[in-house]
Structure formats: structure tokens, C-alpha cells
Amino acid sequence: MQPTSPFPRRAGTAEVSVRPARSGDAPAVAHVQTVTWRTAYRAVLPPEVLDGWDEAAAADAWRAAIAAPPTPLHGVLVAVERNVVVGFAAHGPAELGDDERPHPAGPSGEVTTLLVEPRWGRRGHGSRLLAAVTDLARAAGTARLQVWLPEPDAVSAGFFESAGWARDGWVRTLDTGGTPLREVRWHTLLEEEDGGR
Fold this sequence. Notes:
The protein has a single domain, classed as 3-Layer(aba) Sandwich (Aminopeptidase), CATH 3.40.630. The protein contains five helices and eight strands, in the order ββαααβββαβαββ. The chain has helices spanning 26-39, 47-51, 55-67, 125-139, 154-162, and strands at residues 9-11, 14-20, 75-81, 84-93, 108-116, 144-150, 166-174, 181-189. Strands 1-2-3-4-5-6-8-7 form an eight-stranded mixed β-sheet, sandwiched between helices. β3 (75-81) and β4 (84-93) form a beta hairpin. The radius of gyration is 16 Å and the shape is globular.
């Protein structure tokens, strides 16, 4: 499914856009993930995760996710500036927590990853990616979006909060094979474009 908004924008003299990822974007997506984790997330992610990171294996995993998503509701979008992939977002149906009931507003979707390489930050790429995911989710009948964020990640929390998201009270701890990583869940309810929901 193509994003429904006119995503191409001008930032100064450079054209920027968001588009669905193609298989050939997988190495660039993995590179953005590697650079972002090793710079901006150095104090957030356990050293065991960063030290053992395999960018080539990540590229293979992203290639598979892009070429053969597990459901039609899964997808990967890339942010592009000057024909360079500078960020990406992966999304799909939300996974419910243990003993969690579906949200009364309707189906939930999840932003599983949203990263912009730090040197391309503060140019609106994150906001465009989030807007594109929101448009696709709304078009698919999704009523609510959620995202899990590492608890110490104040930058990402501030970004989602500025977009109108809030914590929903759910917390989980991931086993990283070393230092456990505690995450908190943020969410937002999607309104119809006419304000009807």
C-alpha cells in the first residue's frame, strides 16, 4: 500500500521524502540502525547488544522483512534525503501483552522501529516517518498505535510526546543475554481525518 499523504517536501534546497522500502534498501536500513544504535543509543542499549551487532545479518533480516512481510499490515518505510536513506520505520499489527484485552477503540498497530541516523537528525525525517505510518494505519482501519521505548531513552520519549503520544502504563523487561533492558509502552488513538473517531 502506498502512503496516502504527499510526502515529498523541500528542506532548504534538498528534496526529502518518505516511501515504502525496497529490497535494495536493506543494507542502508541496517546501516542506519547500526550507526544510530552505536552513537545515540550507546547509553541506552546494553554493551552486549552493541558489541555483538552484525550489520550484514541485520541487512539480511531487513531484506526478508521488506520482500516478504509476515502480513499485509506489516511494512517498512524509508526517509530519503539527497537520494540517501537517512531513516526508517517498521510497523505492523500490535502484539498484546499477557492477559491484555484488545483496546475498546478498535484494532491496534505498532511502530516496531523508528530511527533516523543522528547526522541527519532535526530535519523532520522522524516526523515524516511517523506521519506516514499513521496515515497507513488509519487507512487500514487501525484505531490505535503503540510503540515500546527503552525506559532511559528520553530523546525518543520526548519525540513521541511532542507528537501527542502518552505512556499507557505497560512495562516489559527484555532479556538481552546480558543487562536486562526495561521498556515502557507509549500509545496514541487515531482520529478520522474529519475528526469523527
